[in-house]
Amino acid sequence: MPLKNKYILILLFFSISSGLFAQGDGPRAHLFAPKGVWALNVKYLHLDQNLLPGDNILVKNADIKIQLFPTTFVHTFGIGKKFARVFFMLNPGSLNANIATPIKEINEGLTASGFSDGYVALEYGLIGAPALNALEFSKHQPQFSLNALFKYWYSGTYNSEKLLNLGTNRSAFEFGATMAIPFHKNISENATWLEIIPSVQFYTKNNDPARSNSANVVEQDPLLIIENHLTHNFTKKLWAGIDLRYQYGGTTKADGISDDNLNNILGGGVNLGYQISAPLSIFAGYDKILAGDNNAKSNMLRVSVVFAYINLKKLKQTL
């Protein structure tokens, strides 16, 4: 196969797989890829829910409409003989909300703009994920892969004088694993993948709670997240998939007193993606909460555009 065609095939596999978004990593975000790829993923999210933008703090009596534009930079490389991938995500957006409180004059027309929480992350191959260049990758048959995943979440825009913020004024440390299971036996076949991503988030304290809370310190219990995606290529360019995501924990405590806002939530959705050209792909999806305690609700529409690039000239020079 000519090098140019191999390059197209490589980016076909990779560029549709960079679907990171704030409400979970999304479909094909952790599929195996060659080293030396740079990618930019720009997304639009529209959310109507009673969770704050990070999707880990439940506000039971709220109706929050959120517009976010998560933008993620991705680079793949090798650490020794193992595959590795780094991410950096910044998350501009805005929200408006109504919160039912006894004081009517403070519960309507709440707005915020700026940045929601973002992250930096490292993914490292443990099983079935060698560090391969583009040509080696183009010959690599699909197989099970297991990677370690670490994310550091930093706070977005926050003002304690406001009732509601896009940022959380605390950090989070997320530890997880990413598993990808192929149901196709050959790289030439239309791909079918099952991704399973379990993780746990741990939070630092918010020592300057927003004006909606009279406490001196707000803490949050760890949150367990199990994310699943099943996707199938109908052609080499067109794919569709279904999501299933469960999270448990994350109760907040104001000066040690529980806010009774446990996350016990099962969500799901559908996605449709298309490879526009070798370096450019797009997918759209709809997700919602299917079942949850504390009247949890969320409807999310997302559109993701991904551009991926690999230095083909540099690769040729090594041949």
UniProtKB/TrEMBL annotation:
Residues 1-22 form the signal peptide. Keywords: Signal. Pfam families: Phenol_MetA_deg. InterPro entries: FApF (IPR025737). This is Transporter.
